Amino acid sequence: MNFNRRNFIRTAGILSALSLKEIDVLAAKRQMAASDKTVADDDESYWSNVRRLFPLTRELTYMNNGTYGPSPYPVIEATHEGMMMADQDGVYGNYDGTPPKLAQFVGANADEIALTHNVTEGINIACCGVPLKKGDEVILTTHEHVGNALPWMNRIKLHGIVIRKFTPAATAEETLSRIAALINRKTRVIACPHIPCTQGQVLPVKEICALARKHNLFSLIDGAHGPGMIPLDLHDMGCDTYAGCCHKWMLGPKGTGFLYIRKDFQNTLIPYHVGAGSDDGKWDIMTEPVTINEYAASAHRYYGGTQANGLYAGVNAAVDFLQGIGMDNIHRRVKSLGKYTQDSLLGFGDKIQLLTPTEERSRCAINGFIIKGVESKKFFDLCMQNKVRIRCVPENGLNSLRVSTHIYNNREDVDRLMEMIKKNI
Question: What are the structural domains, with CATH classification, of the chain?
Answer without folding.
Answer: 1-70+326-425 (3.90.1150.10), 98-306 (3.40.640.10)
